[in-house]
Known about the structure:
Elements (H helix, E strand, L loop, with lengths): L3 H10 L7 H10 L2 E4 L2 E4 L2 H9 L4 E2 L7 H8 L3 H14 L8 H12 L4 H24 L3 E3 H17 L6 H12 L7 H28 L5 H11 L5 H15 L1 H16 L1 H9 L4 H12 L5 E5 L3 E3 L2 E3 L4 E4 L1 H4 L34 H18 L4 E2 L22 E3 L4
This protein binds protoporphyrin IX containing FE (HEM).
Protoporphyrin IX containing FE (HEM) binds next to helix 12, helix 13 and helix 17.
Amino acid sequence: VLTLEEDAAAIFRGERLEDPWPIWDRLREEAPVLAVGPMWVVTRFEDAKTLIFDRDRYSQRLWVGGSRAEAMLAGFTPEGREIWHKLTDLEKNMMSRTDIEEHDRLRGIAHRYFMPRRIRELESVMQGFVDDLLTEAEASQGVYDFKRFSQDLPLRVMSHIIGSPQVDRHYILEATNRIGRAAGTDREDYVRDAYEARLAFNRYIDEVILDEHRRNPGSNELVATLMDSEADERMSPLEVTMMISVLLFGGIETTSVLLSNGLLELLRNRRQWELLCEDPSRAGAAVDELLRWVSPAQWVPRTTKTASEVGGVEIPAGQTVMAAVSAANRDPREFADAGMLDILAGARPHLALGFGAKFCLGSSILRTEARIALRSLAERYPDIELAADPEDLDWSVSNPLLRTMAELPVSLTPA
Length: 415
Ligand code: HEM
């Protein structure tokens, strides 16, 4: 029999991804603040919210010296350690990895792009992408792997926002996956590979995306905003590159997980799918409930700046602490019927997109995108069915942070 700590460690290694929920439930009820190897896992809603919110006590930046990274580096060769430090030297220029003043400066620049007017303009672009992808899917006539839709839609949307050529979508997906998997790993080979991919990706951003702006300054508003800030010395050149990078990282795989895992959940809980088809304008509410239910980013990492008490447990300074959003979003202390997917439940403010100063910058992008996708699916294919037994889906290949299946076969059976 495995201990709770071993069960939790397995999730973080990516081993229980087909069904982590019983483990999350037990952690939340029996050991809500638990040391798991070199880190701490926090599973109740209130505690997770405090961790995510309180920037004075919990840092994003300090992950470089946090207990989890230290334990990982202890197992590396000297050369592997050096590569890890070079990688983190680049990545600490990424907004999501910065703290208070630095963070607010970078966020203040980027957030001007994400205005409601812009999201409204993007709606028709998104609808066009959804329609094209569904028409392609329909052409497959038979079993369609919905993962393709779920990855292609956010890739197209983010490529459009960033102004990278649509033909480079697959390069971008591969690069973000290679770099992304190093964030939660103990494996030196992944870190070495991520560093190589990072150097190449930063060159790509400079030579393709930024160069397009240099030749044709009016071509993309987001890049223009960033380059103006660089010209005024409010951002360094590396910060500009890393901002583009974090938008691609934050915007693609997360949204893909919401779409694919979300569709699986609706089809498994068929009544929920029917409720959506009866009135497709429920798609917006469904997206919000699916964010809570799926929690595409399973946890949000922080490092304690000083010794600090979380949920009654004293945690020393410099410790990696994971706010387990997956567990918190099903906490019965916070939500009535927390253990049920219910798209008609009304607003249930959750932590799937974070909380406070670092709240997801792309929240209106992903909400709009997912709403259009679900609505179009419900309108066009109310009879859609899973074409595999959910028990047979393969969850083992995903990045544990972003748990998802390798393939999601469906038959669309047009109405
Ligand atoms: C379902 C899709 C998404 C999920 C689940 C998600 C989740 C999150 C979460 C949990 C955070 C907070 C991290 C923290 O507190 O440390 C965050 C931040 C962020 N997200 Fe998202 N996100 C999604 C989509 C997007 C999209 C589409 C974009 C870009 C357009 C984006 C860009 C960002 C950025 C740049 C940050 C960092 C904000 C900051 O440091 O101030 N995300 N996201």
